[in-house]
Amino acid sequence: MPSYIAGIYISHNQGMEAIVAASTLATLGVSIVRQNKLLKSATSEAGNPTAHPESLLGKLVTPIHALTLLAVPASYLVAVLSNSFHQPEWYTDLGGLPLELDLKVGIGGKAWIRTGAALASIPMAYIQSWIFKTLGKQMHFISPREKGEIVSTGPYAYVRHPGYTLALTQVIFWAPAFWSWIPLVGAGVCLVAFGVKIPIEEKLIEDDPALGPQYQEYKRKVPYRLIPFVW
């Protein structure tokens, strides 16, 4: 149903895209600010990284998943913000969900699904805050720090890499929010990247003389990488 805001005509579809775009922008903004702030404080409190991946794959895997996590929402935002809060034809042709699904769920059902998926970013933001607060000064993309410590409390008591779990969850929820399968491709890329990165990251920690034995004990206590009781 169309409406007017400040005398400006807003269609149902425009209102839907505005909600999704606003939640996506807020999610990205908050995440980037938090991460940058934590990285700076971690360097000042726990020192610089002590080791880095030596292989080309080890050096590339973090940029690959980071760019994917940025490209998926950025492509949606560029599409709708440059087209008056309508998904342009090129975006729907590239990754739009089947029309049969629209017909099956109906206009109201689609609106509820997209709104719910978009607003799921709110509890995810709180979970991210929990993860970052628990990790604290040990924050880094792949390497242990000079004053390294093993973090095993909070979300790290359930899986060893909860930040990656949350990132995958967010990308998957973007699929119904954007009404596109593009985020699912991004989730696949990230899953492969995390599968490659985790052994590299954990080996850097285990090779540290001070942290290695502690981390091996932590792995015995928390055997799951990303998904509790699964993997």
From TrEMBL:
GO terms for cellular component: endoplasmic reticulum membrane. One of its GO terms (molecular function) is protein C-terminal S-isoprenylcysteine carboxyl O-methyltransferase activity. One of its GO terms (biological process) is methylation. The keyword Transport does not apply. Pfam families: ICMT. It catalyses: [protein]-C-terminal S-[(2E,6E)-farnesyl]-L-cysteine + S-adenosyl-L-methionine = [protein]-C-terminal S-[(2E,6E)-farnesyl]-L-cysteine methyl ester + S-adenosyl-L-homocysteine. It is a multi-pass membrane protein. The keyword Transferase applies. Its EC number is 2.1.1.100. It is an enzyme of class 2 (transferase). It comes from the Eukaryota. The chain crosses the membrane at residues 171-196. It is found in: Endoplasmic reticulum membrane; Membrane. Its main location: endoplasmic reticulum. Gene3D superfamilies: 1.20.120.1630. Keywords: Endoplasmic reticulum, Membrane, Methyltransferase, S-adenosyl-L-methionine, Transferase, Transmembrane, Transmembrane helix. Belongs to the class VI-like SAM-binding methyltransferase superfamily. Isoprenylcysteine carboxyl methyltransferase family. This is Protein-S-isoprenylcysteine O-methyltransferase. It comes from Dendrothele bispora (strain CBS 962.96). The lineage of its organism: Eukaryota, Fungi, Dikarya, Basidiomycota, Agaricomycotina.
